[in-house]
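Lab notes, practical 5.
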Amino acid sequence: MTSLDLANDNGEILDELFGSYPSVAAFLSDEVIIPVHSTAVEDPEDVLDFSYDIDGIVIEVGSLQAIKARIPYLKMPAIRPYHLHGQFSYLKKHLVLSELSGEAYKCVQLMLGVTIAHVADGYFLDLSLLPKDIENPDRRLADQSWVKEASLRHMQNIQKGFVVKIQGLSVKDKCRPTIQKNSPSNLKNMNVLEKDQDFIMGLLDSAIRDASEDSFFRVLITLQKFGMKSERGLEIDELVDQHLILKTTIHVACNVGAKDPDILLMWARNGIEQMSRSDGTLYTALGIHETVNFQTVLDNHANRLSRALKVTVMDFPVLFVQLYVDSPHIHVKSPFKHPVTGTIVTCGLSHPQYANALEARATNYLDHMQDLSSKMICPFHLRLEYVLFLEDIAYPKCVEPSWFFVEEHLLQFFEENPVVLPYRLGPYNQGVLVILSKVMDFLVQSLSKLHVGHRNRGGYEPSWKAFQLELALEELFYGHPLSVSDVPYSVSLGTSSSDTKSLAYWRGFIGLAR
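Output from the prediction step:
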């Protein structure tokens, strides 16, 4: 049976079963097992389409004077605690964590920094602090409160030193347009004229060196941009002086879709698990039991990436890998974990300011989930995303995303590994995407009704239902790691005959729709 035949079977079985129920509520109320089948891809060159993009880049330079891109405004106000932000979210994909000791790894997790400019084309210029002696860091750098105080003091010293250097300029340099147009007493948005950029960056470089002399930290200077998904090439030489680059980490991705637009591909749990379970973490995807996303573990242990994946890219050190479907999954930022449930269980008895904030977050949460639900109807691709470590290389004039991938090995990867779960989408108003969208819309509407009818009133049953619905929506859109046992609210639109030990049902919703 070919992958196209399996796509037909998977789609028909799901359509027929879903269509046999009078409503979404009835479908969710039944403990039904829906068989699906994963496959390798015969003749992948004829079946699959590949496209490539650059999703992010971090360029570490030895000097601010290396920056060639325009810096129209430099942000160097008197540094306050709120200017500092954690840097580990990108440092963990830029540093070679396996080279760090356990103590150094703990210290790096606490490192802070500041963004000092928004550079042309959407890049951020950051100053990040790292232990000066990263091989044997001072023990105090593992103390979060001490690090906050010391980091603030270090950044303040840089800013104060920069101001002193501006104030101490010679008459000739005080005549520069940038110095004439800005007051050193207020450098919140220092307008840097193009002709003076190199000079101003040199002053700041000097202030950074002075502040680092008697400090536990060294300053990492990075130009970075994430979430680009740019299919165009990247001209590194227009951003920085290549001779002053210390290291670059680049996020590159391969998008994989079927040449037949009516076929949707997902990552198959069984195939990915057999190949990569020991190399990283599997996450549920879209609430379908047999579909997963995968990412390598980011810690200070050696990367154990399987050869099948590693050879799909050029021979650069691989720091991080993700395999996922690019379905809608934007996280809503909120200090409240389950805001709709919160509006119910607090019974209107909390402080008015807290109650108003919780209500605002609940409304935003529902709007956000409804938006994601409406976008679920849009077809998506498989993505293979890699973070590659580039050091001591001669960059081509234009770094094309396809340059990093070995298409021959990509074809071999899909031909030899049963990692694809295919669905034929079927005619209008049918298919897995329509079903997913209807299910998610039902869950959002059910949660919205509970919010309207029971907020500030409490009650065990509505509280429990709201909590289950919020968990289910997060499971559907964001997934959960499969290293944790399947939880009762897990969703299943299928299970393969080869994996019957961990069947997941819509248990969290049994009775909710009745």
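Observations recorded by the TA: The chain has two domains: 3-53+250-509, 68-239. DSSP finds 17 helices and 14 strands in the chain.
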